[in-house]
Amino acid sequence: MNETTPLARVQLFVEGHTLVARIGGEWRITESRPVLSALVTDQRFSRLRVVADDLTGWDSSLALFMREAAGWADTLGMQVEWVGLPAGATKLTALLSQKFTKPVEPKSALPNPFKVVGLVTFSLWGETKDLAGLVGECAYSVGRFFRGTAQFRWRDCLLEMQQCGAMALPIVGLVSFLVGITLAYTGSIVVRQYGGDIWVADMVGLAVIREMGPMMAAIVLAGRTGAAFAATLGNMKANEEIDALSTLGVSPIDFLVMPRMVALFFMMPFLALYSDCLGLLGGMTIAALPPLNIPPNLYWSETQTIVDLSDINTGLIKAAVFGLLIGLAGCLRGLQADRSAVGVGVAATRAVVTAILLIIVFDSLFAVIFNSLGW
Fold first, then answer.
1. Residues 373, 312: Cα–Cα separation, whole Å
2. Cα–Cα distance for residue pair 275/175, rounded to 1 Å
3. What does pTM read for this prediction?
4. What is the pLDDT of residues 227-253, one digit of tens each?
């Protein structure tokens, strides 16, 4: 029983109950190699001895042959003995055999619901602790600011005000104007059934000033500014700039987080007012066109009858809180980012999702609170 190839060769001999395989020649991974299980026709042996015989060269193909031979012998209950083989090939075979014999855990068709609920609960609890920790650090930073010991730079804050305020006007204005158009079209379908075309101004005015104005401005800034905050802080963390600030005794909260949160807190009410104006303008534009044909002066007069200062204050309060939430979400995800380029992208995505979720949750809470207060 033997087979010879141009490079690697295996010769088989029988010594009692022992199968002896003499291997030699040049073993290269780029060439075909013998397979021991294919060469053996009689498998009634209790021992396998692999002997090096004029082995002129070898690479990983020899280790693969030895791994396959060991696995084949193990399935037949045969003991394996290596004689005269290179120590490197034996060591590599042992490593390959460990990986080869590693049991593979079967994948369950359906996840364990208790495990999933537990993991989600622990993850939510961890996120809540991180958010509460950042809120507490920001509260301490505010205290240091009023005591005059905070490492807060107004220059950075003014720069962030420009980025999240003036630079956001075009996109906020476009979205708000289109939302006003959509509300006017939708409202006209209902009110025209009762002959109350002028009520379109009431519906658009209340919806825009109390809800849609602050909401649209907040969602736009969550995608625009919140993601930018997370990406900036995540990149600084990856470059170890935040660690350098801490080493120098500079608080990252005072120096990086608070200027961004203060900028959003002050600029969001102005953006909400700007969004309100563009939303009302969108509704007024649609009302002036057929089939409503409501003059702009009449539309504006009707809006003034339904909207008062409490409605405007409601929107401004919401906008200021939404600004804080966007800043918290963006800075939190940026500080949590992994130290890699992928981690920066993931942090930006998570910042947008977290900010929008917090905006929706707090808007619902505001609706309940303001309704109970009669606002």
1. 15
2. 8
3. 0.69
4. 999 999 999 999 989 999 998 889 999
